[in-house]
Amino acid sequence: MAEYKGVLVCGEAVEGKLAAISLELLGGGRKLASELGEELAAVLIGSEIKGLAQETIAHGADKVYVVDDSLLKDYQSDSYLAAMEKVINQVMPKILILGQTSMGRDLAPRLAFRLKTGLAMDCIELSIEPQTKLLLQTRPVYGGNARAIFQTSGQPQIATVRPKAMSALEPDSSRQGEVVAIEAGIDASIMRTKVVDKVKEEVAGVKLEDAEVVVCGGRGIGGPEGFQDLEELAKCLKGAIGATRPPCDNGWVPSGLQVGLTGKIVTPELYIAVALSGSSQHMAGCSGAKNIIAINKDPEANIFKEARLGMVGDWKQALPAFTDKVKELLAG
Amino acid sequence: MPVNMIVCVKQVPDPEAPPASFKIDPAGNKVIPPANTPPVVSPFDEQAAEAALRIKDKHGGKIVSLSLGNKLLRDVIKKPLSMGADELILLEDEAFEEGDSWSTAYALAMAIKKIATFDLVFCGRQAADWDAGQVGSGIAEFLGIPSVTVAKNVELLDGKVRVERVVADGYEVVEAPLPCLITVSNELGTPRYATLKGIMAAAKKQPTVWKPQDIGVDPSQIGGQGRNTKLLRLFQPVREAKCEIIEGDTPAEAAVNLALKLREFKVL
User: Fold this and answer.
1) Res A1: pLDDT
2) What residues 66-95 of chain A have any CB closer than 8 A to a CB of chain B?
3) A residues 244..283 contacting B (CB < 8 A)
4) Chain B nearest-CA residue for A322
5) What DSSP state is assigned to residue B91?
6) Residue A146 within any structural domain of the chain
7) Do A154 and A223 belong together in one domain?
8) N or C end of chain A, less CB within 10 A?
9) Is A162 part of any domain?
């Protein structure tokens, strides 16, 4: 029986470019491959994506498998699953890593169950156990209250990785690598589900995931109007607004603004937490922020255990004064 | 067309319990259940039940709530019944304990095969304890049916299911044939409260309890024995933050001082 070997990264393209998460996975995958003394490969699935292979190599891959088929233009569970199953059976990697993205969280579990192998989702750290050479998967559990280290049985060992948990390498355009085409060999009849529409709920201004400053509001904001005040502060700091779960679930703001375990993961320089308690599941999305600043009227709120600076008081009185002072300081 | 639905529901420690009450027994790699906070139905599963109930409201049909564990608390696990589900089936046995996503999805899929008549299976997108996010997709794979994950709205249309699936910059509208498995996300909205009538009706209903032999499972594939993941270590991350509270006579003054402090720290 052939041996499972090396690390395989499942890449994703966004608007014709390699996604940031894919670059991060290549950086993280490179380390794992070095620890194993084996190869780092990547697989790109899509339509007209051959052009991304060189960039994938520049970011650390030794080999790039390209599955290019017009049926794979957009992510669809059944077609991508079939393509990945074929790739895994041909490449036989020891480790497969995917991003914890809309695609990864849908594809990875079905793939793992189909291949009868173990998977850990939403990992924040991956390493190789020196003695056994097996993958150690660290992930938040219990809504971010705890972390767990898992080892999975079965081959390949599969993990999805949270955005921003790993660092991309500086691209090196002189790096050499091999590009291998794999026929998808899929038939449209296997695609049982169909994406009939895509609705973008993008918010104007800086993208939440990329923002250097995030102003985040919680349940205490009380309604959609309050978020306009947060937006004013965010605007003068050239930042983005975010929200905890209740404002999203109540429809005060679009669900894409949710920061937390099941929302966006942000790592800004400055995170201003307004009228939010700091639940573990929320902190899971923003604990990577450099400076967390809290405004909350409850001195016992958990956010004060997480923040570097804070003030106790009603945000409605505090925020206008804060915004004015910030404007003044930035102008001066 | 009356719709046959199954909702998979897990009993978990209350995720809304204050973070300070969360404790781990490091030797046993286990969470110590907080003394004063009873377990609950995992919130995403409650939303899964809500998704099924909305379909029942509109089209009629039957909802079976399916749970797995051992010594499940009846008051907790009957919650979907009190919300309006029709039947409760429990896979309840010592042998189901200590499972992971693999062994749990396997047992639930075997139970669903035994139930046999179903158009839609609903699960929460992940459970509030281990946050694994695999069981729904795993059940679909065992059953060989399509799945749509992270749903925020589910409707039936011309014999197909139409799902709004949350993605990073909005949502996709996905259509799938029946039977189909759907995992539900918090964006679906707040689940309905149990009514008094519902609670009384639920109190009268007795769950059907199935043992491993009732669903024809391979005993080596369920519970702790069937795991394909091994938990090596469970720990609480160390918090390093020490918060400096900025004072002021009024909230406005404190806010101004806070802004000044940010400048001092060169964050602004």
Assistant:
1) 57
2) 77-78
3) 245, 248-251, 254-256, 261-262, 264, 269-270, 278-281
4) B255
5) E
6) yes
7) no
8) N
9) yes
DSSP state of A259: B
* Residue B155 contacts A where some CB pair is shorter than 8 Å: no
Look up tokens 């469970």; give the residue: B234
ipTM: 0.94
Whole-number pLDDT of residue A187: 94
Distance in Å, alpha carbon of B205 to nearest chain A alpha carbon: 31
**Count: domains in chain A:** 2
φ, ψ of residue B48 in degrees (nearest 5): -65, -40
List, for residues B12-49, the tens digit of each pLDDT value.
Answer: 999 988 888 899 998 889 999 888 899 999 999 999 99
CB contact under 8 A, A145 and B22: yes
Instruction: Name the domain boundary from A137, A160, A190.
Output: A190
Please name the CATH architecture into which domain B3-226 falls: 3-Layer(aba) Sandwich (3.40)
Put simply, the answer to whether A146 touches B259 (Cβ < 8 Å) is no
Element (H, E) at A142: none
Contact A294 B166 (CB under 8 A): no
Listed as ranges, residues in chain B with pLDDT below 70 are: 240-241
Q: Is the domain of A101 the same as that of A151?
A: yes
Work out the minimum CA distance from A74 to partner chain B, whole angstroms.
11
Query: Is B264 exposed, middle or buried (CB count within 10 Å of its CB: 0-12, 13-18, 19+)?
Result: exposed
Angle at A218 between CA A213 and CA A220, to 5 degrees: 130
pTM: 0.94
Q: What CATH number does the domain containing A45 carry?
A: 3.40.50.620
Q: Is residue A196 part of a domain?
A: no
**Of the candidates A144, A294, A162, the residue with the CA atom closest to the CA atom of residue A218:** A294
Does residue A252 share a domain with residue A108? no
Q: What is the pLDDT of residues A37-89, one digit of tens each?
A: 999 999 999 999 999 999 999 999 999 999 999 999 999 999 999 999 999 99
pLDDT given at position B260: 96
Do residue A168 and residue A217 come from a single domain? no
In this structure, is residue A56 part of a structural domain? yes
Q: Where are the domains of chain B?
A: 3-226, 238-268
Average predicted confidence (pLDDT) for chain A: 95
Which of A102, A146, A249 is nearest residue B168 as measured by Cβ atoms?
A102
Q: Kindly state whether residues A181 and A212 are assigned to the same domain.
A: no
Q: How far is B204 from B190, CA to CA, in rounded Å?
A: 26
Tell me the residue range of the domain where A163 lies. Answer: 7-190
Question: Which residue, A190, A218, A235, sits at the end of a domain?
Answer: A190
Task: Please give the structure tokens belonging to residue A185.
Answer: 């060999």
Q: How many angstroms away from the CA of A199 is the closest CA of chain B?
A: 5
Distance between A56 CA and the closest CA of chain B, angstroms: 23
For A125, the 3-state DSSP assignment is strand
* Contact at CB, A318 and B241, closer than 8 angstroms: no
A chain contacts of residue B133, beta-carbon cutoff 8 Å: 105, 109, 121-122
pLDDT digits (tens, 9 = 90+) for A203-256: 778 899 989 999 999 999 999 999 999 999 999 999 999 999 999 988 899 888
Cα separation, B174 vs A231, whole angstroms: 32
